[in-house]
Amino acid sequence: MDFELTDEQKMLRDMVRRFVDEKLIPLEQEYLLQKREDRRLRTRHEILGEDKFYQLQEEAKNMGLWALWLPKEYGGAGMGFIEYLIVTEELKKTFIWFEFGGDAPHVLLEGGQNMIDNYLQPCIRGDKHYHGVFAQTEPNAGADPAAIETTATWDGNNWILNGTKTFIGEAEFTDFLLLPAVTDKSKGHQGITLFVVDRETATRPGYKVSRLIETMADDWTLCELVLDDCPVPAENVVGEVGEGFKVAQKFLVVRGRLHHGGWQLGAAGRCLQKAAEYAKSRTTFGKPLAERQSIQWMIADSALDLHCTRWIAYHCAWKADRGEDVRLESAMVKLHADEMAFRLIDKAVQIYGALGLTKETDLHRFYLTARMLRIAGGPMEIMRKVIARSILSEEYPVI
């Protein structure tokens, strides 16, 4: 057992950290100012600007930060889950929303050569952009995929999709998205099929972003997506008909939960650093806050929380890179990381005092996002259900 990052992993961490420090963090104050001055700017793309976003992606590409997660045989960097955590943690040390380009979901490899030619390779070339959109949630279906009501019916030429998806992030910007729909209601989970829906080829009004849903995180705007006789060709089925739930579990669940782990590690780590610096500089009753035991204990508890979460996450990533089934461990990562970050950032606000309640600092950005992430991607209650079910069925030798 080796707890040390390799030299290559350290180089990757340092490269991404330098990019965040030099390219993204300097944009934060301008970002906050724009949002305060023009509340009509509702989405991250509108505030940062798409031109600026893709310019930054090109700069990252020149550094070699491109198509990081895709296999080398298709032109990607072929990085694993540990590298995925490293990159995500460093990127989320800023609230500026950014992702490295050239990426596409691994699940496309289950779709055969058509998916590789029409979606994966164009993403690597930069001709198409995928923003991580997995459109599962519906007005009456959230964490339970068996409750999905969106249907897909074969008409002899195409699958015809009808239904409504809601709380879908980035649906108005992504060139294509992954979308589960019911092809056989009588089979429950086994009657769900996963589709790639292409915004360009979906006949309007077949595919329509019907409204934007503003959230408490202010610039994290979600979408309602309406599918009205939306045609999807047979070759856009991912895997086999009726195996959408299994495919999603295999390729999307673990990566999504680890993404939460890295995200919360980065955000919480930045807030702990800011709180510690503020505690050393702020004086009350003739002494720095850092000399107050109550503040020291908050910082100590936060550092412990952060450290424990990091090792839970990296252990899960290590097992995933070995090809092991980590659905249980990834649920632990998401649960612990989301709750840790909320606790830690709340302590940072407390240390800042009245200043922490204002928008003069950026703590509110991290705080509100951390609160949303306790629901997004699977709520805490579902993560506990997954963990308890495994323990009670004796699938996992923890106790």
* Rg for CA atoms: 22 Å
Corresponding CATH architecture of the largest domain: Up-down Bundle
- How many β-strand runs? 9
How many distinct helices?
A: 11
- Structural class given helices, strands, pairing? alpha+beta
> Low-confidence parts lasting 5 or more residues at pLDDT below 50?
none
The strands making up the biggest β-sheet line up spatially as 1-2-6-5
The SSE order reads: HHHHHHEEEEEEEHEEHHHH
CATH class of the largest domain: Mainly Alpha
The share of residues in extended strands comes to 5-15%
Q: Let me know the largest β-sheet.
A: 4 strands, antiparallel
Report how far apart the termini are.
22 Å
What name goes with the CATH superfamily of the largest domain? Butyryl-CoA Dehydrogenase, subunit A, domain 3
Q: Assign a percent range to the helix content.
A: 40-55%
| Average pLDDT | 89
The CATH topology label of the largest domain is Butyryl-CoA Dehydrogenase, subunit A, domain 3
Number of domains as seen in the coordinates = 3
Shape: globular
